[in-house]
């Protein structure tokens, strides 16, 4: 009978710890074919099995289980079970039995199949065949665990291959500097090591208790472990007698080691890559198994040399990743600033270990006049280059924000910067820039290729805001960057984010955007900001293909009406005196009498300057006072010309106004508006810290940002 295997799965593979017998079974459940190794597997010669029912392979208790496997042949299904198989006169042994159907039928037209019976090798035969041992170590094992660039996972893969194919106990120890992602030096002798992975298959839990995983240690003199570190050569101990085991345990001050090491055969395999010792693999065979010989050491070193490359690759990747993360985190802001009515929280998560470091960033910058710049951006690509570009952009944007450029103008300057950077190396980035004015309750937003921001009303209704489209920063051509202004309801929540939050390999971006909207409900007005920030990131930590994520969430409230006052200044010289009266009355109402004199002088200089240089401009002059964490005095006029500070000559009558302002105020500045410009100055309020004293609670994943 010619048999052809059905394409339903591969036959069970043989390995160094098992032996497999292949039997052919016809439609009547009789054995019609038998492999030549029947006596080694089931203790009977092939001639004794041919023609007998397959049920004779097992005792009565297991016959029903075997029959269930054989029924799978009729149903054209592959089935596997662990059965107690008779082994000649020696009793029974546990075996993994697989029934696999065949395409061909027997002579009677009934379905036929194969039985694969796999039993464990006896200890005396487990490491007898060097060719089988080499094949088990070298064939595909290195490819399987070498695909990981994580040092811990690579070490775990190493010991899982070495045991049971090479020894009964194994541990991987590497230099502590490797784990710490530092430069690896040619350390030897008394080097500090860490045990990354431990495993054994003899059922003795004393191994992992005596040699715990994760332990940092220095091996004492006079031990074979120290010898392999000093020579970077394999150490072979065919057998450790009781005296040698006792001496090692004594020097190590670990009493249980004497019991474990007595009678074992040991080989220590150094891990050397790029002429640098990275650590070693300690391998032991307990009494009852064949002892290591010189050929075993040769096979082990061939494996260790290849494994060292895997460990070195993981070490280099870990170091580069740690460097990029440290660089990225150092470039991100360590604190966010905002006016007192605005509450801001941030979240930043680096990409998972399967994804390189990215270039996401965020920023919240308090601006004069109870305003705040809210920014989030994403540099295309990953790695150190993306992190460096992110740092450049963030620094430039911080400067532009302090220059008080409108969002669209600031992004245009950033676009020109990215074009210039692209001449050396192509780069582009998306960015969203928003400025919220707590006095008017308006939000001005400009976007360069970024995802739409989410605005949530206090009652939970929310929408993604439509911003005039523009290409990413650094992409030539396309529409010009424009901004749009929105009126914001007091207490609304504003969310800006990068694409890693709403998009991944297993989820469409529309689903991610819908999930983000579902986070907010009718309790938005009273729900704590920390709770909402936590809900936004729910479910992203377990994503093994997660890109880095930056989120900025802010609750936008108006400045209380009793902390803001304005007065239109008539275009006549006598108005300056009345303006001083207005300042005096308002500061007395706020309890800021100590600042009356200086504020009167500052307001006088700013108004006089506006009357002199903006007399031909359209529109009135307006004086505004804002009492927040500091006292801000603003003068608005219809002229677009910005004043500049200069030092007047001794014979000049004017030109000293802004010099007086710069001396009296803590800081001053100007900004253009749609109707003209604003000149402002700021004074610290005595006894009040400009920063918010309320501590921000810690949040899950905070160490990703601060480490």
From TrEMBL:
What are this entry's molecular-function GO terms?
ATP binding; kinase activity; metal ion binding; protein serine/threonine phosphatase activity
Catalytic reactions of this protein: O-phospho-L-seryl-[protein] + H2O = L-seryl-[protein] + phosphate
Q: Which SMART domains match?
A: GAF, PP2C_SIG
- The residues covered by the PAS domain are 22-77
Annotated EC: 3.1.3.16
Residue ranges of region Disordered?
683-707
UniProt keywords, alphabetically: ATP-binding, Hydrolase, Kinase, Magnesium, Manganese, Metal-binding, Nucleotide-binding, Phosphoprotein, Protein phosphatase, Transferase
- Entry's InterPro entries? Bact_Sigma-Reg, GAF, GAF-like_dom_sf, HATPase_C_sf, HATPase_dom, PAS, PAS-like_dom_sf, PAS_fold
Q: List, alphabetically, the CDD domains matched.
A: HATPase_RsbW-like, PAS
Tell me which domain of life the UniProt entry assigns to the organism this sequence originates from: Bacteria
One GO process term, biological-process aspect = regulation of DNA-templated transcription
Q: What does this protein do?
A: Primarily acts as an independent SigF regulator that is sensitive to the osmosensory signal, mediating the cross talk of PknD with the SigF regulon. Possesses both phosphatase and kinase activities. The kinase domain functions as a classic anti-sigma factor-like kinase to phosphorylate the anti-anti-sigma factor domain at the canonical regulatory site, and the phosphatase domain antagonizes this activity.
What name has this protein been given in UniProt?
Answer: protein-serine/threonine phosphatase
